[in-house]
Amino acid sequence: MSKRTKRYHSLSRRIVLQFCLFTLVLSLVYSAISIVMMYALEDSFIERGIEQEAQQLASEYARTGQWPQPSRGNYQLHFSRNTFPEEIRQLALDHPKGVEFSGKNNRHYHILEIEGHKNTYLLAEVSNELYVRPIREGIITFLAIYAALVTLIACVIAWYIGRKTARPLTQLAALVDGVEPEQIPMQFADKFPNNEVGILADTLEASLKRMVSALEREKCFTRDVSHELRTPLAVIKNAVELLSSSPSVANSDGLKRIEESAEQMEKTVHTLLMLAREAHSAEKKEDTQLMALVERSVLNHSTLLAGKHVDVVIDDSCNTRLPIQAGMLSVLLDNLISNAFQYTHSGEVVVSFAQGTLIVKDTGQGIEEAISTRITEPAVKGSESTGFGFGMSIVKRLCEHQGWTMQVTSHSGTTVRVTLT
Question: Which region holds residue 370: left if phi is over 0, alpha if psi is between -120 and 50, else beta?
């Protein structure tokens, strides 16, 4: 029953992060495409110039029957790859389909086989025509600055959008967070925009209205139950007082049991009604003797052990005083001890207290596997139970109400640990 704090992630921060990440990736992709397109455009200009030169040479050869010299000094005509410059010759022979090779000292070559003339090549050294490569670092720097600037602008825009988007949600959360049942806000949905947040506000307002209605019905039910239970208890107590004045039954053990049970029932009703009203756990606490409450609870439920070979052990550690509401602790002990007595047929039931933790351990059959994960839910009970299955549910609610923690284990019996401090 220990409650872990749930971690929440800021919606506006997530919007900013995702928007900026998307913009950064988009900028990098755009920069990469830009560089590739510049290289492609540069190559297309070079190849177009080589093709025009090749067409002129082929036309002159067709007219005169002899190959003329290329019109440009950086163009060479070759009739075999074996005559290529030494720095690219081997590469050209190893890659017969290659059309672009890099040489030494930043030289760069393009090769074109003249159409219709096999093994006739126009070789162009185009290092002086490369405009992108010399300024490549500058281009990359510019694109990096551009990407950073665009990402920064996107982050600012995303921060504004995220803040504007999350603000109504934050206001809605602040409106309903920690509100007392008697102070539940009404008619607040109209204050929010007509979007998804407005839909959420409408839904939440409708849910709160239903909750207020349910709380009002429960308050009325609690008031009626309080009257219906306290009236017969008052009659029983008055009857006990009248019987106590009779000498024949004044010292009767049965009469004392009735009187003690009536008092205990009155305290239990008070405690349960306090839970139903969601009274605050910081109500007046008193210095309570734990041993006395344990002994009284054991005596009150001793009839459950009739005919059983069960030893009840109250450890000396229970001889301590606690700053606690006695009524709440009494209800807790009654439920835990009665359960232990009911489901233990032989062996022992041990009640102890150590380091702020109340421990009730028995050697019974343990919790049935079918209900082991739902043992603290209302109306869940074992096959041997003769009750209604609300005992452990009341214990769970009591622990939540008082800020206690409960742990139930079932191995060679059942052990319940409730940390009270």
Answer: alpha
Question: Within 10 A of 297 (CB to CB), how many other CB atoms are there?
Answer: 23
Distance of CA 217 to the CA centre of its chain: 34
DSSP 68: P
Can you tell me the distance from the alpha carbon of 77 to that of 84, in angstroms, rounded to the nearest whole number? 9
How many CB atoms within 10 Å of residue 258?
16
**Whose CA is closest to 322, among 292, 279, 301?**
292
Q: Which of 286, 239, 295, 283 is nearest to 262 (CA)?
A: 239
Record the pTM.
0.47
**Domains along the sequence of the chain with CATH:** 11-138 (no CATH), 179-279 (1.10.287), 282-419 (3.30.565.10)
Q: Can you tell me the distance from the alpha carbon of 166 to that of 196, in angstroms, rounded to the nearest whole number?
A: 12
246-261: per-residue pLDDT in tens? 776 666 777 777 876 7
pLDDT, tens digit (0-9, with 9 covering 90-100), for 21-51: 888 888 889 888 988 898 888 888 888 998 9
Residue 23: count of CB within 10 angstroms of its CB: 19
